[in-house]
Amino acid sequence: MTIDWWTLAIQAINVLILIWLLARFLWRPLEASIEARRKAAEATLKEAEAMRAEAAAGLAEIDATRARFAEERAAGLAEAKMAAEALRTDILSKAAEEAEAQKALARTALAREAEETRAAWAKAAAQLAVDIARKLLAHLDERALREAFLGSLTRELAQLPEAARRSLGANGAALTAVSATPLDSTEKERCRALLGEAIGHPPHLAFATDPGLIAGLELKGPHVIVANSWRADLETIRAEIGHDRSR
Amino acid sequence: MNSPLATQTLFHIGPVPITEQVALTWVLMVVLSACCWAVTRRMSLTPSRLQAFLELVVETVDGQIRETMQAEPAPYRAFIGTLFVFILFANWTSLVPGAEPPTAHVETDAALALLVFLAVIHFSVRANGVSGYLRSFASPSLLMVPLNFVESITRIFSLLVRLFGNVMSGVFVVGIVLSLAGFLVPIPLMALDLLTGGVQAYIFAVLATVFIAGTVSEGRPAASDNAASSNETERGPQ
Question: Roughly how many angstroms between the first and final C-alpha of chain A, as a whole number?
Fold first, then answer.
């Protein structure tokens, strides 16, 4: 076996050239590509890391905003609660005032209605009393009744103070004897005599008739009226009843 | 059939004979360079399947160098990787009808072994200087200098003989079987040649890496020497 040294040298040179060629066309471009991909991956990772940090910051900001919203909501709720409470108090006070006013109105209306009812009942009672009195009067002897009222009139005059009694009909003042039914002449004389005896001097007496008295005999002077009739009694009774009710 | 031990000259350029293996090597160089240029001229961050495969090859070569040498693979990638690629495709040219692998001739294998021998010296001197390279022969002691020197020669011869013997024997066996048996009978042996060619390319590249790594690491100053020299530097002239 012989070795061709020329071939050996040429093959060595060929391999050296191939090393250079492949280094230029294979190894370096591939290494550059791998390096570029590695850098791109690193850049992507850094970018992803930055985005993750940014997202974390965004999340933190969102959490802070949510917390702020919660605080604002709580404050708003508290404020609304206070406003509602104030409004409720205001409404309640107004309602209480209105209720009080309504109650006062109702009381007034009730009082007026009660007064009207009482007046109606009083009127009805007075009318009833007048009717009863008229029915009683129909069963009584009018002359005896007038005699009785004349007697009671003289008693009323006797109970007056002496000075007041003496002033009745003094100085020629006219007195009027008012009866429910007309008096006959005998009764008029007797009345004049009894009144003169009561007041201490003969009176200047006139006679009048007023059926509204129901029954009775009243004496009217310029300054004094001596009420002596059932109407006056009924008026007195009604006034006393009203006085007792108001008391 | 010609003997695989004989070289067949195709033509002469002046006094230089151009043999069949040289011509085939030129064809291989052109094809490999053209394919690599065609593939790598349009690289993108989103790789095609071919680009991804080539990047996988690069990563594999880098990983092998990194594991073997415990160093960054960039300075050694072109040499080791090209050795592997060239030997692999040169071995596989046996599949081309009428072509005989350049590695089946002792001149090509000797040229490859010579380049490994020179690369060992080059990388060792570049890493540790001339003294470092010479110091690598005295590892682990001065008594080992003759043995290490002989070993640096013999291991290169072992590379040469291993590659040449395996590839030449494969071609020889296929030729003998082809001359004795039918046309399709050598196919299993040719398939075995493919496997053998790949394995031999891998072994050659790995051994070259180991030889370079051994010389580079053995040429480094010892830890105690480093400490002494650093102490001298810190003390300074008095």
Answer: 164
